[in-house]
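Dear colleague,

Following up on Tuesday's group meeting, I ran the structure prediction for the two-component complex that the binding team flagged. I've pasted the input sequences exactly as they went in, so you can double-check that nothing got truncated or mislabelled along the way. The structure tokens for the whole assembly follow below. Feel free to forward this to whoever is handling the docking comparison.

Inputs:
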Amino acid sequence: MVIFSMKKIIFGTILISFFLSCVNQSKKSNEVNLYSQRHYNVDKIQYKNFEELTGIKVNVIKANADELIERMKNEGKNSPADLFITVDVGKLFQASEMGLLQKITIPSLNERVSEDLMDKNGFWVPITYRSRIIVYSNKRVDVSELSTYEDLANEKWRGRILVRSSSNAYNQALMSSMVANLGIEATTKWSESIVKNFARDPKGSDRDQVKAIAAGQGDIAIVNSYYIGLLLSSEKEEELNAGNAISVFFPNQSKGQRGSHINVSGVGLAKNSPNKENAIKLINYLISEEAQKNYVSNSYEYSVNPSIKPDKIVQKWGEFKRDTLDLNLLGKYRQEAIRIFDKTGWK
Amino acid sequence: MEIIKSLLKSQNRKGVILISFLTLVLLLPIIFLLGRIFEFNNENFFYLWDNLLIDYSKNTFYLVIITAIFSLLFAVFPAWLISTSSFYGRKFYDIVLYLPLAIPSYIMAFTYSDILSYTGPMQTFLRNNYPQISNFFNKDYLQIEVLGIIMALSLFPYIYTVSRVSFSLLGSNYIDVAKNLGLSSFQTFYKIILPLSRPAIFSGLFLVLMEVLNEYGAVKYFGINTFTTGIFRAWFSMNDVNTATQLSIILLIVVFAVFFIERFLNSKYRYNYKINNNIQNLVKSGFYKTITSNIICGIPFVFGFLFPLIFILNNAISTYQKIDISNLFLLSKNTVLVALLTAISVIIFAFFVEFIRKISKGKAYGYINQLISLGYALPGAVIGMGLILLFTKINSLFIGISLIGSLFVLIYAYVIRFMAVGKSPISSSFDRHPETYDQTAKNLGAGTFKLFQKLHLPINKFALMVAFILTFIDVMKELPITLILRPFNFDTLATQTYEYAIEEMIPRSSVYSLLIIVIGSILLILLKKTISKSWPN
């Protein structure tokens, strides 16, 4: 009997602790709640610094942007979310279109953030940006062969181009920018030709494309700038060797050309933000010089503040002209971009 | 209708009400998903249907076939050798062949793609030492066939476990008779043992199949578009949650059609052999058989566990300065907490349902049983969405209490997803015990509660252990549900592993995956001990 009552006690304790753990919805006033797609180490550092500076507790849920959007949409008025943070401007645009965000007014924002990176409608604020660039084999490609994204459709690249799949948001944003700049018809033709030039079916991560160049499976790859920074700071000697076998090229730089495609990681203020004041404070912090320097040196992204230089590794690639297209168009033309991928067989 | 009639005829009214209520609770989120079927977006649905789904379905079919063939190879032959013959190394393999289950399949896929890649250890070694042959191995390994084999390596223990038990249970009678009839040992295996074990093997294969269908991370990385890719294409790329839901329900229907067809075809094989208590004598092996046995059992162990483990361990050691111990401890605590709460809930729930089924009889419980397992056939993210829909509704009815983002909802989701995993050992344990036990107990005057406490709890305790361990390990490895439903600031070992892995920082992720593997391995060794206790040999 003693054993039985012991069991009861243990069982009871478990049950009680279970229910107690469920009631964790207590409302603390001095906090800010983030629904974030960013999950880098640098983010932890930023939030910790912010907490120490202001005493405001930062709560984070990290998941895929679409899942977070779905969660916010369903939670509606009761959503605890204050800020929605993504690594793709397309998702910020989508959230604003769905009425999940409210306009943000931050005084003297344009003193700290380049104007072309800002949202014309005022729903989101950029915190960093990345460029989708071309990397090429030092052995098999001469830099004079490279020029623009459009040129990747040229027959001279037959069987030489590496890129990841069209499920990837960065590729989708690139295709959207092509649609915005060239129109659907020209972009479809471009995609058809570039698919013919693929060295293999799209697969793997950005880093894998670089490895594939080192392995001789292809000669050039379309990748995100910050992955190259990460690769070049790898702990593994072999990966560093792979990174050193390639060079970086920014497309569309000549006079009269639009510049390289970029995408921002940004933050939007939730429509029903319960801690609006704290949320604005955090946005202000994230675009402060201190925070911007942290981003630059930890995750090899570019600062939205024109006065802050990129990390040393990134600086070596030189400065570049960026495409100043209205970034919301990267979200607006997303559906067209997806259909072009599917229609032209970009897996 | 048939179900309702048969439920009404049942002897145990209270039990019926209770079991129906519990089933409803478990199915509620899925019912909410079904509601979305009617919000039909013709354009997107037929767009996907016309452009992608045929191709995606072909890939899915091919991947499932490859994984099925290899996981059968990795599971059935070792299980047969270990169950029937004695050879040097047998005891060792008998323990370690369960271990690959501790490695989540997405980690297995990431690990192998790293091992095989141009900058990985295999090719680097060849380049530095045998440059003349290194070119031959310099290939693109991100292929559907490679993925199928990798998935098989991480999933075969599902089949191994059930085959091992089934082969042991058959005992020596059948083998003796076969020998007397002059069949060779291969013929015995092929003509007698395999057909008799078919239901067991299929139940394992079915779990493997559902895992493959639900896999998203690994297939995406390998650039292989499966049906699940289609579901997420609709959701993530086309922003159309309804179409995504409809596609997952189609998947659900297909899975269950396969399941019921198999049930129908195999019904004549089911439970009609005599369980043998004569423990069979293990056949002693000579030199050559010992070697072949070691190869057959060694391959799945070495490739399914040892290699990935060494690689991950090596990575973890090389990044040890960057490990945040207090964070590691916190994540382990979170992981164990949710796994523990889920495993306890699942075994209580499953035991209860099985107990009522046992004492009430009636065909309807068979159907209900299958309904409860529905969650396993749905991708985790879709279950997550079902719960968000359900709790949004609850929230709008009872204003002010938003449970989304609480541990309760997270565990609720896990229970729905893993009920099938926990229920199946409990279910088969109940099936094995004859009706006469209940009759005798009742004749001795035992009431329902006594029956529960004095009879069924003790005689099924090993099955409960098995169910607990399997569920625990699965929750520990779970990713999509955790990502979408977790509370603020809540990370687990699996989510941290994933966050590093998708940022292409595999070495940094290693210590977290290593911990999943270590905890899982300890539990699996415990599982093996439990199985040995309940089925000697």
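Chain A touches chain B through 63 residues (CB under 8 Å).

Cheers,
M.
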